[in-house]
Prior knowledge:
Elements: E1 11-13, E2 23-25, E3 28-34, E4 39-45, E5 49-54, E6 57-61, H1 65-80, E7 85-90, H2 95-101, E8 108-113, H3 116-125, H4 127-130, E9 139-143, H5 146-152, E10 157-163, H6 177-185, E11 187-196, H7 204-217, E12 220-226, E13 236-242, H8 251-261, H9 270-275, H10 281-284
Parallel strand pairs: 7-8, 7-10, 8-9, 10-11
Antiparallel strand pairs: 1-2, 3-4, 4-5, 5-6, 11-13, 12-13
Bound molecules: S-adenosylmethionine.
Amino acid sequence: MAVPQTQLPGWTFEALYDDYRQALAEDEVLYDSRTEHQRIRVFTNPRFGRVLTLDDVVQTTEGDEFIYHEMLTHVPILAHGAARRVLIIGGGDGGMAREVLRHSAVERVTMVEIDAGVVAFSKKYLPGLSAGAFDDPRLELVIADGAQFVRDCADRFDVIIVDSTDPVGPGEVLFTDSFYGRAKACLAAGGILVTQNGVPFLQGAELTNTMRAFRALFADATCYLATVPTYAGGPMAFGWGTDGDARRTPAETLQDRFAAAGIETRYYTPEVHRGAFALPGYVLRLLP
Ligand code: SAM
């Protein structure tokens, strides 16, 4: 297959698929450097604001990050109903910690990020993402491989959120059966594991693999969806695994919990929460 022109000056072509590219115009490149783990870049786009890429794959943009971060935090936390201890694996930009910490009932957030460079860089170039989360005394930041962390961890968490890169490079290990098994062992009774699982229309195998592992581990294993414009190719899937029945929390209970939390959201609503678990046929067919 002929390789398309992907070197247009003033544009970033996302290097995620061989046969499908998303291009974002660059107004200004603010940062471009390599850590020992990955290439980190940030540039501004007129529509999405500041855009963070790792190894030339879009991780987050100022314009649409709220959808991803709200859906990976408020769905499991409000479904659980009494989450006190939350573990975030990855999440170096701080957006996930920001949303978790908006729940005043959460007492402790442990965030395990492999790359200190992402944290330092995000604080400087994307301060709106963490919005002070790194200074919150409830946050414990651990710079380590998330897979290693769950192997050695004796703590138990009510909610575990895997905010990883795609399954290439350092993030690959976070999509393995053994990682999921160890993560499950770190859940308290009734705990919930949620994961970023890519865009099923384009990355179906990734979802199938995670769901196969989840179905072997959890009494309730499925995924839920949200559309994030810069994760191109249709809605994105989030893996959901628990031995409890939090997914069936009635709408009225979610409404009450959401009101009690006193959180203002731009995407999450209890109705969206419930509806996100309704899966179209092509996604259902990816579930083993
Ligand atoms: N929302 C993004 C997406 O889906 O495109 C991903 C967010 S980004 C914050 C993911 C983070 O996971 C990066 O900061 C990366 O350094 C971190 N990460 C990758 N592999 C990891 C591992 N094995 N352990 C801990 N963190 C990891």
